[in-house]
Design brief:
Blueprint: H1 14-28, H2 39-48, E1 50-54, E2 59-61, E3 69-75, E4 78-82, E5 85-90, E6 95-96, H3 98-103, E7 110-113, E8 117-123, H4 124-133, H5 135-153
Antiparallel strand pairs: 1-8, 2-7, 3-6, 3-8, 4-5, 4-7
Helix pairs in contact: 1-2, 4-5
Length: 157
């Protein structure tokens, strides 16, 4: 019997989706904000994340503008600038926007795609909903933020 939609690709199997979610959860474990989360908690965060693509030259985040969340680079490279000066280049597995994930405040840097990029994104509003549903993730996120703040405050002034 012919398919009703011959041009539509078949939906991925449940096993393929689970493997993809596990891969995303493993990548999220590398984000310091999520470092204290269990595999189960990382899986919850992974389900909330969405893939986003941008063409080469796209400004993904602009310094001073309100941030919408955290992005992890899956493919491609991005340039990070502050005050117009290049600070670093980010590639697969690296991320930006973790502060905006917590407060939705202004971006501290501009991030521009140096090539076509595929990102994994989690918006601030989706993450807030997750924190309300999963208080253990909220607690571990707060602990990670406090740890990073403590580390920075120990640096000489």
């Amino acid at each position: 019997m012919p398919s009703a939609h011959p041009n539509r690709a078949p939906a991925p199997s449940k096993e393929v989706v689970q493997v993809a979610q596990q891969d995303i959860a493993a990548k999220l474990a590398g984000v310091p904000l999520f470092s204290g989360c269990s595999k189960k908690e990382l899986a919850v965060i992974a389900r909330a994340a969405k893939e986003v693509t941008h063409k080469k030259g796209t400004v993904i985040a602009r310094e001073g503008e309100r941030g919408i969340g955290l992005f992890m680079i899956l493919e491609g490279r991005c340039r990070v600038t502050i005050g117009g000066k290049e600070k670093s280049t980010l590639g697969p597995g690296e991320f930006f926007g973790e502060i905006a994930l917590i407060d939705g405040g202004p971006r501290t840097a501009t991030v521009t795609a140096l090539s076509d990029v595929k990102l994994l994104g989690i918006t601030e509003w989706v993450f807030r909903g997750l924190l309300l549903e999963h208080p253990s993730i909220a607690l571990k996120t707060l602990e990670a933020v406090a740890s990073r703040l403590r580390a920075v405050s120990k640096e000489p002034v």
